[in-house]
UniProtKB/TrEMBL annotation:
Family in the record: Belongs to the major facilitator superfamily. Sugar transporter (TC 2.A.1.1) family.
Keywords per UniProt: Membrane, Sugar transport, Symport, Transmembrane, Transmembrane helix, Transport
Transmembrane segments: 19-39, 87-104, 111-130, 170-191, 203-222, 285-309, 321-343, 355-374, 386-406, 427-448, 454-474
Domain Major facilitator superfamily (MFS) profile: from-to ranges: 26-478
Places the protein is found: Membrane
Membrane topology: Multi-pass membrane protein
GO cellular component, one term: membrane
Cross-referenced Gene3D superfamilies: MFS general substrate transporter like domains (1.20.1250.20)
Protein name as catalogued: Predicted protein
This protein's encoding gene: LOC123426369
Major place of residence: membrane
Length: 517
């Protein structure tokens, strides 16, 4: 594989241990932190297509929507305040992720999850009871704080609890929960939209309290990771926990020794935010910035935020647009399951490259189909069979994302950082993700109005760039213990120039036998 490097773990570090029931259940509970993120992504687009909601909070958009079909289909939802309703959450998540890094390092991953769940719970209550725009936006900001804390801590927690050979599968549980949250939101929107009294949107927004309650209560029962316990000065508790999560009959001495060495090195780092800028961390820092940046420029949130709005723009009416969102939500869940069962066998690179190619072709087809029917004027109608073709290729696009950039955009950054800068690195990953999620959410409806069908070509161009980037610069990280990840970068054709021999410290045996293929 071009630009790839593979750590030969068959002759080197392959810590003993199996997937114990204890680890499985703790990872499932932790992964439910993804539900709050997914539910919000799915719920906002459905609510903003509901007439009672628009009439109460965004009357200008509501009146434009009621105009005859001769109106420009591309521009009927173009409203900055409406976009702010969606995007404000992600700006709050960006800011809160920096505070979450400190909490995660100081008191452990579980309490960061608890904080996220609790603030999301309060935000859900506020949104469900909203009487004006101010209440809506404040509620969204609180939801954003919850998302920032959860997205910062959950992927790190999953990567630290999982055995190296199963880290990909367990970590993708986070993305799977995001997709389940999106699907649940689409189904709820479809149901609440049928409520004749017009308060369905309140139920949709308030039900965000359910996933928030799950992660808030669930986090109270989660154990700390061995990495976090050692980092906070509890070595014996860390040994007991490592023994419990790997299996009581397993020799954990080598893995424990490597964790202690990593912790001792991390204690020498007084300023992780300053240290992460050092030359030896350049590969990880680059990935923590570029992967979430590219993930948002796949255009996926165009589909997931605004699926009902987009489908209605394309000529689907009312319930049909919400049902189309349900269909894409189902595809999202099942395609993510494909990634769960293949990521540790096929590896990260193959999924990235295949998914990118599939997304590119699908976007080009969708853009062309829309161009043929609506042109640049935005005036036209889409026959039922033609509309079904659009939905089909959007589903192919969603599937490509769901087994590549969706889960891997969270997995890879969470597994590549050494302990001493891991919370800071994950914060950068989350904040870049949230920054560009905010930008896309705030700008999409305006971009659709001005770029029209060309918007799909715009995102297709970015998919080409990101696929080439992965092919050249991302080495394979499957089955590599987190504390040995430096060997992967040291063996890469490009990144090796940034890592000196003195920077390679791999555990108790100093990496003996861990060859770079």
């Amino acid at each position: 594989m071009a630009g790839g490097a593979v750590v030969n773990t068959s002759g080197g570090k392959d810590y003993p241990g199996r997937l114990t029931l204890f680890v499985f259940f703790t990872c499932v509970v932790a992964a439910t932190g993804g539900l709050i993120f997914g539910y919000d992504i799915g719920i906002s687009g459905g609510v903003t297509s509901m007439n009672p909601f628009l009439k109460k909070f965004f009357p200008e958009v509501y009146h434009r929507k009621q105009m005859k079909d001769s109106a420009n289909q591309y521009c009927k939802y173009d409203n900055q305040l409406l976009q702010t309703f969606t995007s404000s959450l992600y700006l709050a998540a960006l800011v809160s992720s920096f505070f979450a890094a400190t909490v995660t390092r100081a008191v452990g991953r579980k309490w960061s999850m608890f904080t996220g769940g609790l603030t999301f719970l309060i935000g859900a209550a506020l949104n469900g009871a909203a009487e004006n725009i101010a209440m809506l936006i404040v509620g969204r900001i609180l939801l954003g704080v919850g998302v920032g804390f959860a997205n910062q801590s959950v992927p790190v927690y999953l990567s630290e609890m999982a055995p190296a050979r199963l880290r990909g599968m367990l970590n993708i549980g986070f993305q799977l929960m995001i997709t389940i949250g999106i699907l649940a939101a689409a189904l709820i929107n479809y149901g609440t939209n049928k409520i004749k009294a017009g308060y369905g949107w309140r139920i949709s927004l308030a039900l965000a309290a359910v996933p928030a309650g799950i992660i808030t209560l669930g986090s109270l029962f989660l154990p700390d990771t061995p990495n976090s316990l050692i980092e906070r000065g509890h070595p014996e508790a860390a040994r007991r926990m490592l023994n419990r999560i790997r299996g009581n009959d397993v020799d954990i001495s080598e893995e424990y020794a490597d964790l202690v060495v990593a912790s001792e090195e991390s204690k020498l780092v007084q300023h992780p935010w300053r240290n992460i800028l050092q030359r030896k961390y350049r590969p990880q820092l680059t990935m923590a910035i570029m992967i979430p940046f590219f993930q948002q420029l796949t255009g996926i949130n165009v589909i997931m935020f605004y699926a009902p709005v987009l489908f209605e723009t394309l000529g689907f009416k009312g319930d049909a647009s919400l049902m189309s969102a349900v269909i894409t939500g189902l595809v999202n869940v099942f395609a993510t399951l494909v990634s769960v069962f293949t990521v540790d066998r096929l590896g990260r690179r193959k999924l990235f490259l295949q998914g990118g190619t599939q997304m590119l072709l699908s976007q080009l087809v969708v853009g062309t189909l829309i161009a043929v029917k609506f042109g640049t004027s935005g005036v036209g109608e889409m026959p039922k069979g033609y509309a079904a073709a659009v939905v089909l290729f959007i589903c192919l696009y969603v599937a490509g994302f769901a087994w590549s950039w969706g889960p891997l955009g969270w997995l890879v950054p969470s597994e590549i950082f050494p302990l001493e800068i891991r919370p800071a690195g994950q914060s950068i990953n989350v904040s870049v993700n949230m920054l560009f999620t905010f930008v896309i959410a705030q700008a999409f409806l305006t971009m659709l109005c001005h770029m029209k069908f060309g918007l799909f070509y715009f995102f297709a161009g970015w998919v080409v760039i990101m696929t080439v980037f992965i092919a050249l610069f991302l080495p394979e990280t499957k089955n590599v213990p987190i504390e040995e990840m430096v060997l992967v970068w040291k063996g890469h054709w490009f990144w090796r120039r940034y890592i000196g021999d003195a920077d390679v410290h791999v555990g108790a045996n100093n990496g003996k036998g861990a060859a770079i293929a």
